[in-house]
């Protein structure tokens, strides 16, 4: 990428009247240089089966070309037209709730051949139309693609073939999944029951894994079509999203982002987050670190909030703070969903840069400032590269397995992931994410592993070696409890890595009035709490960092640390208050020499950095608060880009509320 | 009506043994002069297809005739017999939950021809039997009729025809409803999808509007049949009910009462309300004002609670206080649901005047006092007429639209309606209700408009003229946001009436720690709160009554007042604490000269008045509390009717707990 | 039984590898002398239709025989194999949620002939294989059998026949059930509607009663098959369970245990209960008293928790305290569910004596202590007989009826049962349970009747006679309100027994800020509360124990006491604080001479006693707390068995936390 992209999703199709010229004028005024179009407009592009209408696409592309604004074309396949369902009702996915009915987006069976046939045709028609246009810089495959819980007879049929491929002998399947329990044994492939009724978490989790594979297949099928048409200089991306808790919260349960991104040339993402009094930047950083890690490269923020829901209207300064936070995480674009607010239907309140009156407003006006800054010094910021010493190991399989056994847990996988991530974020520890199949483990000085409930032996053995060879681990409770088929290990817990951790347990419980003792943590009494889960640890070779404080459990360790080979492996056997976790992490970071000057700053002062295309170090200081902050600049002397002013190491700097500085270091 | 009706619903069919003579004796002892019969007894009247049995109807009518008690005959159509469903299962309504199963009442498809055929036959048979009986004074069509969410293929078929009638060109429909969004465009009428799945609020709300039209059609179809038989002196009514929140709360979502009442000769209603410590009279007044407004005339209370649910057993005095509260709102009847408590089935605990032992009890004994008073001075009270200066404009369309966009709101339409109504009630401001099609707007000095989310341009233009010509408005947030098809206006907000209001906005949010500043309200700090919703107002020609008190929103107005032509238009841009609303309303009432002596009294002292058939002014003072109240009588000299004693203007009067006085003024 | 059974459920089928020898070694080390096998393993025993595989059964029985461990064989019928559903999908029960899908246990229609055909075949095959084995001491029919809400057309067909048998004339049914209401009359048997839709509680409750009859039929059908094979010395049992609220809470709604146990030779049960800080022993005592009462004999605890859910890991001493609590209630066995924790599927966290690592652990180690004690002095404890003076009358019909009318109640039947039971338990009052058909009423000095909502006249007349002849009653609110068909009585309430109680009412309500006055209870102000329900009582011949304290209800009695013939009948008209109930019960116990020395002790000191086979009195003192307790031993001199030491009446005894003493009195 040769410049930062600053843009919006733009739907000429949704406009209440013809405003194309007016919109482009307002975009140019804001230095918007890219729009994303066409995604979800199938019923406009192909109003009847085989009848195509490129009016909107043509006029937008032509106008953008003239205005010098780039265009990303999305394939329209994630929302199907009414004629398709009227003609072929079985394209609607069958889920545990039965067959869907028309209305919502993302309700089709992504394996249905009829759907695929018509989807392919419309993609090809669009590609023929747009791929040669100069302003078209790339393509988005579908949008927020997931498997939509598709589980009809046809899908289950494919699943049985998939299982046969893994387990040639049905009894291996029975044994591995423990199907003898409650008489669930399948003694002949022909007897395979409806998987939607299963109470067997191994079978259920494997089916969800298979459903994630369907997403990979669907996306690479689309990518193959696109690749037939696309120019070399055009990219292919996807708009990934996250576990949704009213905003982008954590690992996406229905997509394996690492696998799904293989067919892309650049990863893309949408990130929505709390704002106003609740803006912390955590989700921007989390989503950015995740997406940057997919291809170890810069990524596109294809959607983020402008005014969003009713309580997402940004305070003065917040829109700008957010934009640079994306760039500081390695994004090469900031694109709003969307340009204008929609006057009908589901997302009427998911507002764009323009309100329903389509006039200027404070949010649009702040976007103008951002556009201006991107234009004036964006070339210093684009293609920011990072080299982090810390990685967090995440796993879709662990997530799904914990969902299946949630009856015993008061938390979900992503609560543990975020518990860990958030403390690192607040201490300005830059992180990558890696998956269970990562080849890059050795690259990191410290790997943090939250609740890796389900893990293959191979990975666990690799972790032992990693520590032996000088790597460092922080592993939490509920890790390595089962194998990749969610069979609990009958070896000592945690399976295999008890070796590097030097700790084991065979009982666990839910804490009731439990705190920690015997530690050196700098925490208050109210912070000394353990919730939801505790394992009754016995250190074998490890030293105990903290014991449980409780009349019956006081003899058990809660947190341990083990020197193993050249490395150190820390185990946290319980879900502690975040203050305790912070103390544990500080201890580890200090011991492995990762606690530097930046870690002395804490949220709401967030520091991010990286190296630009010229290999110049770029440092960001963000003030995520309503309080004016006076801080000491701790990096090398440089040019503060927003004011284009020199700044010296050690100099006092004032950060206004929701403001930031960006320094290009001078070596 | 020549006298107040005092009565009960009476079901000989439900009696555990023959008590007709005993019941009539007890009714006469309580001066009960009317019973309602036959409603919901189809399976008794027509035990098999085409076999009729009028035993219960005949014997009750004959006995009532002899006893001098009038009879209202209800058609039995709102609960269908088992044979009908066994023979024709498709009479059961198909809703979004699939086809219903037999059991509950109100489960049929009111458009189903089979149902209509049999319903018509049984109605005609009953009419032939009863219409010439002298004691029969009127008919109730069905009961609490609604559309029961009927939405089967046949109903959707009718809906498409209804839409075609409105939108001759399908593209007008697509544009008006914004169906291009998420590929929902319907490019051919044949492609019309199942409306139950729609995520388009314009389409969904229009379907609900169409369902309300079905209710109007059904009732007028029944009225037409009844009218073939009824004598001139017999009335036709319906038992309307309200949004149910464990009691009668607000505007009925599934019926447009204004439209549905057109086929009636007199409006009827049931009103259920909290009692004991929670009795305030608000629902009696609200339901009464609504029902009186339907035909601008007196109305029947066809059902109200006797002992009701477990916590509805009235305290001493409450049953009488309630009865006269109905009359003071313009009711010409008080009828209990029901005479005796039922010994089996769903409403066992919805108790009647008699308990399950069918003997005298404190509630029945209090009914005897009421009956005695109705008899002795009811002729002074009947046909009470009111001329109110204030109207509240309500809208089914606004209600439905807000339901569709409830994801963004922490309240429903009726919360706003009641927020406004309750403050007016507590200040003794008499109100009428008007609908969006009202021809009577000019009649009122002040119109209060809560959350008129969806409004046609014509109405909004009319409101501008109304103010210009000297009318006064109080409009709340979320008004005039969309047109009648729930398309958000792309003009300045609030659409069109921003002219008379002199205010506009294009951003809004959810308040977090927001209060008001710059006002002159007499409120405490705890009362100075804004919840759920705030619009960031900019006054154009209006003056600001209050600003938001908040670090980021302090520059925006919250409440404004605008002199426009001869009138004043007030806008309340946020959901305030009720204490603030009260202050705003007092300000408006004073400015438009509607703040009189009665407004100096407040709940729990409630004052109601009107003019009887002789045009004598009748004034009620109610004490809605457990505290004895000493108050000054502020109306003209008159006769206090309950004690038949003179009372002078300015005299101190004692109101016992849950007691009242009724004064006939002497001019 | 000649010894205490100490055992586990054991599933060779579920083992991750062959551990039979190792398991037996560890069992022997813990003096485990019985295992339960085969239940729920149909898919292992009959992997394909008609192909049998007894591998696991054979090898376990052979190994146990050799090891001297007894075996209870469960029939495998409560979880069906995949081939059965694949071949005959209609074996899955149709409930109000439609037809089930394969996966969970207990999902079949227990009346389906196909299911019964295959179930019978597999039972016979197993019986042929195992019935002659010496170590097999008994059989368990199915497991936790219920009707699984089966309600398909075939079941409803049987229900109509069942009703025809009771009500020869359909109009008797209509009258008794009050079907005229809301037009529900069934005027011809052919018109019988789908009972799943009914809103008639009489019809609905009768259907549930019929469903409970299906359970009786199913179990006695299995018993008949077993009886063809079983040796005289082998027993037949069932594993009953209770209303589940995360643990065994109260009367089982879906089974009439009294009726269902008739086909058994010994009653069996599973009891799960809170532990750790929440262990009280109440559920052990409640479940034990219930199960002992079924056949007035000792019973088997076939399942109880080892480590159970995450918060059921016992504190040191608790497993042992629990074990002896079972025995002290009359159990002849303590069997854990289950030996080893399961490595896959639904109950992964419902842990056995062994954790997933299958090694020794603190819980297993405590089991070893118990096994050792059972072995050394179990012969003194086995076959403990009780003669209680107090019985609690419970009723499935009352439970179901209160469910149907729960809309008016803030509590369920079992809340009232446990409210009463728990206070008696905490005062060490030994209780039996009796059903409405009990022939043993006269045996008891005091019968306590919680919320007997639905009761036949015959029973009520019997209760009048019982009191007249010197029996004593404590009856709570909501008793004798309806007849056995849930028709509310139109006589004075409580129906019929108002005679012995000397009290009546015809109004009731939900209390709001109501307490009691006029009493002599020793309670604090905070304890003086009435919640959920109050009846406005008028004493006829009774004296008032307490009045309501409330401005409007102060004239009504709340609790009354009546001398009637030779007995005393107490009525509690409201749901009081448990402190009030305790005071009422103390008053009654004292008056009828049932308040002895043991009642001066209170929870956490629990005293239980009975007579062993030698008619020696055995007394248990339990300390259900974390506090060391110093108490006076109040029984006759004897031998304390756990320490084998003499103890004298009046001696001070120390009870350690969660510890107990067991004394064999020396007469």
From TrEMBL, chains A, B, C:
Domain of life: Bacteria
UniProt source species: Clostridium puniceum
Keywords carried by this UniProt record: Glycosidase, Hydrolase, Metal-binding, Zinc
Family: Belongs to the glycosyl hydrolase 42 family.
Record-given protein name: beta-galactosidase
UniProt EC number: 3.2.1.23
Residue ranges of domain Glycoside hydrolase family 42 N-terminal in the record: 10-376
Gene Ontology biological-process entries: carbohydrate metabolic process
Top EC class, one word: hydrolase
Gene Ontology MF terms in the entry: beta-galactosidase activity; metal ion binding
Domain Beta-galactosidase trimerisation: 389-594
Gene: bgaB
Gene3D superfamilies: 3.40.50.880, Glycosidases
GO cellular component term, pick one: beta-galactosidase complex
Catalysis: reaction(s): Hydrolysis of terminal non-reducing beta-D-galactose residues in beta-D-galactosides
InterPro entries: Beta_galactosidase_Trimer, Class_I_gatase-like, GH, Glyco_hydro_42, Glyco_hydro_42_N
